[in-house]
Design a protein that fits this description.
This protein is mainly beta. The protein has one helix and 39 strands.
């Protein structure tokens, strides 16, 4: 029964009919005469402690998690709670009190009440910061009427399996309520702070849901994020086959398309969250320094582009998926010149031909010219490998032209904008292995330029008489924390490898494969 002024931000689904007043509003759909499973609300046995807690008028009390007896917050009092478990016999809030939940979206407060729970008029149970309802869970064995008073505000998940919950006029409930019976009076609002899992409150391009549950970053701080392939949708149910589309926003060399992964049913360890993936220069996750680096090696093929990396314990051991990876945009070879190297969770490489996608007429489709598909089992990394193709043309007067030159070139271009005062020098070092397996290194100094703001910049082309394999890249800026290096495996033969990074100074401070 919805009375005048009631507003439901969501769906209403009932086995019988909905008695709705003309002045009540339901934003979502109303489904009547629908098969609704009888919900068995789990019940708890609760054993309270011996210490009463009283917050007096005008007092503010920060209470640590623990086992207590009766809680009474008197008119005008404020109670602050922290992550952890609280146990009470009675939980009584008088008028005009505040209960503040000092909890982040990745922490939890659990409140267990043995007997009575009462929330008087204008009482407020609210979050201190970002509001994410499931972070607070309240449970009571109250056998009578649980009153949520007029103009009260309650945030979190409330379970009262034995009570009748009566929500009085103008009260606002942000979260969910589970009870044997719920009465909603006029002008009541019921909503959830996570209506859209793909919402992005801080505008950093990564959804709240992914930041809360996967990257563990602050969904309200645009400077708190990790560089990932951004999944859409964020919330899934992988008990069935599901396709996740990955935005390449943070990887400039792959911005010409989307990466897709179709996870087959029951293939993910966590079936409710789209996993994140990374583009890296090595088959290891940038944040995981313990990861081993094993480079694929197949005669007649060279690695092209970068690695697609999946964190450990993402897929089940028997999980399978179809990955749509991207060929870099400057690649001129046709798809039939590629294979895909796939590493299992132990770092063992296997080699696969691309899956040919056909339409209903059995014809190969070319809707995505830069995308190559491969069917994989539980994997840790994959990378494209291009066939070594050479061609020779015999021209007039005995001249010979070959598209396979014997040498190699590396073009390095580094730009670091908006540098702090005093940052004037640095260098890029490229370590490489010659065809005779000797090791060597070339270096490019970074030079300071003042164009409105201070920049560090340089561009240089290195030429080599024979093929080389780049094995390590180092970037250092003097008198700053920017001093990092990482292993790579770029085979360069008869072509030019371009290494580039064009970012603001602050962007280089985060651990990442900055050079693409």
């Amino acid at each position: 029964q919805l009375k005048a002024g009631a507003h439901i931000y969501g769906d209403v689904i009932v086995a019988d009919t909905v008695d709705i007043h003309p002045q009540a509003v339901v934003n979502g759909k109303i489904e009547e005469k629908t098969s609704v499973a009888i919900l068995q609300i789990p019940q708890k046995d609760i054993t309270p402690g011996d210490s009463d807690i009283t917050v007096y008028q005008g007092q503010t009390l920060s209470l640590a998690p623990g086992i207590y007896k009766d809680l009474l917050v008197m008119t005008g009092g404020t109670l602050q709670l922290s992550p952890g478990n609280y146990v009470f016999s009675d939980f009584l809030l008088q008028t005009d009190v505040e209960v503040i939940f000092n909890v982040t979206p990745v922490e939890f407060i659990e409140i267990d009440i043995q007997r009575n729970m009462d929330i008087s008029d204008r009482a407020k149970l609210r979050f201190s910061g970002f509001s994410y309802s499931p972070a607070v869970r309240m449970y009571t064995n109250d056998p009578d009427t649980l009153r949520i008073g007029c103009d009260a505000v309650i945030s979190g998940i409330l379970s009262a399996p034995n009570a009748v919950v009566n929500i009085f006029s103008r009260a606002q409930c942000d979260g969910a309520i589970y009870s044997k019976e719920i009465i909603i009076e006029p002008d009541v609002g019921v909503s959830s702070s996570l209506v859209n899992p793909d919402g992005d409150d801080d505008g950093d391009g990564i959804s709240n849901y992914t930041e809360i549950f996967v990257t563990k970053t602050d969904p309200l701080d645009s400077n708190s994020y990790k560089k990932i392939l951004i999944p859409f949708p964020s919330k899934i149910t992988s008990k069935d086959t599901v396709t996740v589309c990955y935005d390449t926003k943070f990887y400039s060399d792959y911005k010409h398309g989307k990466i897709t992964v179709t996870y087959n049913d029951s293939s993910l360890v966590n079936p409710d969250i789209s996993p994140v993936l990374y583009i890296t220069n090595t088959p290891a996750i940038p944040q995981d320094s313990s990861s081993s680096v094993h480079i694929p090696n197949l005669s007649g093929y060279d690695i092209t582009g970068r690695y697609l990396v999946m964190p450990e314990s993402t897929m089940c051991s028997t999980g399978t998926a179809r990955v749509g990876f991207l060929i870099t945009k400057d690649e001129i070879m046709s798809k039939n010149n590629f294979i895909i190297a796939v590493a299992d969770q132990n770092g063992n490489w296997s080699y696969h031909d691309p899956v040919i996608i056909k339409n209903e007429l059995g014809e190969e489709t070319e809707e995505e010219p830069y995308k190559i598909y491969v069917d994989v089992e539980n994997f840790s990394a994959l990378v494209l490998m291009r066939k070594n193709v050479s061609a020779t043309a015999y021209l007039d007067r005995g001249m010979i032209f070959s598209n396979r030159q014997s040498g190699a070139r590396i073009k390095a271009e580094i730009m670091m904008a908006d540098c702090p005062y005093g940052v004037t020098s640095g260098h890029l070092r490229i370590h490489y292995r010659n065809s005779d397996n000797t090791e060597d290194m070339v270096e490019m100094q970074l030079e300071a330029k003042a164009i409105v703001v201070f920049w560090l910049f340089n561009s240089k082309v290195f030429s080599f008489p024979n093929p080389v394999t780049v094995t390590r890249i180092e970037l250092k800026v003097d008198n700053t924390p920017i001093d990092y290096s990482y292993d790579v495996n770029y085979a360069v033969s008869g072509e030019c490898l371009t290494l580039t990074a064009k970012k603001y100074f602050n962007e280089y401070l985060t651990p990442d494969d900055h050079i693409s």
